[in-house]
């Protein structure tokens, strides 16, 4: 099989109503990726996820440097192609961020093509582990711009829909407000429901130690991204001294950085995201690294779950998956959560095929 064409795309899908966390304001989700055609008529789609900023830099990396290098290549040589692009001209200007996310999009498209050619959903092409469903937790009712009343209403509604765990954002200017909101949510949802909190990197070590300790009483599943993602020693200190597991990974870009976090005992839930590391090829390596340390993988959903549902279904130490439904409607086979569990996709491929009408409607480039 040979690649005959590779062209980037940028879609901006509205988020209604807009949401905030401690460091992001998102009015649209950026679906920036690549559509790859082959001489056997199989078309692959791969993409990375943004808050609809910087997409043009990712797209131009694909069009100017990655696409020309793909023409004529066999998609099944995916790992050789990964090395060639990773250590190509873009290596000099970036081993993370823009150039790495552009490679993620290309790599996902190649795994989409290979599994389509095999007539299998990616989770079966990789070798299935969970036979029919994977556990979900819902983030889409816990945003930092939600009023306390809306927070409580959404959290209880999501649990009534069958979710057994929900996540809320903290990181307000005054941590006492965070404490009050977490206390109110825990009171409203009862002691049985699972609850995670996500700081989105807003605290320093002093705030994290002080308020992490105070929040222990609410029996949290994890404390997510409490500090700057480059502060490994700080997260190690929190992992040692707080009685709540530390979760992070959505801002960790490659297997070496995950190695440092894992080897230094600075992470307990590994949230490796296929759209932030360079695709399926690198995601599998990080999941294997976590497995060697008996750590659970719970991916962040920069892809909004379409690809990660496959990866979690194929990975023994992947225990559950975040659910945010902002863009599911644009896909040929949208993620489907029923009674708190993702139903596994059946169509061949990585569930990245975008419906033409939405491709046109949301395309900005
Ligand atoms: O932190 C997260 N999940 O754990 C969310 O991805 C972000 O809050 C949203 O994407 C908004 O940028
Ligand atoms: Mg997060």
From TrEMBL:
Keywords: Magnesium, Metal-binding. The keyword Amino-acid biosynthesis does not apply. It comes from the Bacteria. Its cofactor is Mg(2+). It holds the Pfam family MR_MLE_N. SMART domains: MR_MLE. Residues 148-245 form the Mandelate racemase/muconate lactonizing enzyme C-terminal domain. The keyword Lipid metabolism does not apply. PANTHER family: ENOLASE SUPERFAMILY, MANDELATE RACEMASE (PTHR13794), MITOCHONDRIAL ENOLASE SUPERFAMILY MEMBER 1 (PTHR13794:SF58). This is Mandelate racemase/muconate lactonizing enzyme family protein. The lineage of its organism: Bacteria, Bacillati, Bacillota, Bacilli, Bacillales.
């Amino acid at each position: 099989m040979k690649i005959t064409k590779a062209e980037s795309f940028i879609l901006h899908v509205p988020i209604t109503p807009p949401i905030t966390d401690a460091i992001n304001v998102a009015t649209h989700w950026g679906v920036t990726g690549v559509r790859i055609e082959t001489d056997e008529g199989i078309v692959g789609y791969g993409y990375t996820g943004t808050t609809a900023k910087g997409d043009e830099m990712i797209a131009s990396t694909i069009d100017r440097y990655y696409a020309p290098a793909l023409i004529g290549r066999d998609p099944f040589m995916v790992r050789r192609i990964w090395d060639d692009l990773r250590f190509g001209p873009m290596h000099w200007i970036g081993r993370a961020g823009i150039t790495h996310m552009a490679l993620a999009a290309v790599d996902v498209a190649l795994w989409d093509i290979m599994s389509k050619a095999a007539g299998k959903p990616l989770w079966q092409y990789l070798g299935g582990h969970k036979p029919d469903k994977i556990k979900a937790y819902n983030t889409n009712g816990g945003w930092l711009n939600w009023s306390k009343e809306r927070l409580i209403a959404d959290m209880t509604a999501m649990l009534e829909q069958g979710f057994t765990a929900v996540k809320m954002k903290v990181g307000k200017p005054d941590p006492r407000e965070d404490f009050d909101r977490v206390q109110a949510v825990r009171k409203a949802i009862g002691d049985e429901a699972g609850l995670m909190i996500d700081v989105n990197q807003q605290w320093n070590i002093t705030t994290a130690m002080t308020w992490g300790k105070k929040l222990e009483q609410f029996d949290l599943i994890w404390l997510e991204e409490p500090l700057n993602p480059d502060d490994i020693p700080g997260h190690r200190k929190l992992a040692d001294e707080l009685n709540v597991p530390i979760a992070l990974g959505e801002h960790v870009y490659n297997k070496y950085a995950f190695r440092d976090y894992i080897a230094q005992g600075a992470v307990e839930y590994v949230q490796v995201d296929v759209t932030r590391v360079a695709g399926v090829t690198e995601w599998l390596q990080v999941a294997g690294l976590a497995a060697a340390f008996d750590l659970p993988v719970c991916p962040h959903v920069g892809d909004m779950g379409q690809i990660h549902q496959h990866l979690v279904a194929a990975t023994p130490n992947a225990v559950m998956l975040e659910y945010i439904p902002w863009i599911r409607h644009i896909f040929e086979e949208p993620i489907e959560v029923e009674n708190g569990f993702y139903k596994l996709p059946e169509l061949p491929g990585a569930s990245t095929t975008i419906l033409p009408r939405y491709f046109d409607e949301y395309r900005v480039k």
